[in-house]
Amino acid sequence: MTEAAGTSQRASTWTATRYASNGPVEIAYDRLAGSEGDPLLLVMGLAVSRFWWPAGLAQAFADRGFAVARYDQRDAGESTRMPDTGASNPFAALARKRGAYSSEDMTDDAIAVLDALGWERAHVFGASLGGIIAQRIALRHPDRVLSVVSAMAMPSDVSGIGGGRYVRFGLLAKLARAKFPEGRDGDIQLSLMLARELASPAYPFDENAAREWIERDVDSGPRDTKAQSRQVGAPWHGPKLRELRKPVLVLHGAQDPILRVRAARATARAIDGARLVILPGVGHDLPAPLWPEIAVEVRRLADRAGTAAR
Question: Structural domain boundaries of the chain?
Answer without folding.
Answer: 6-309
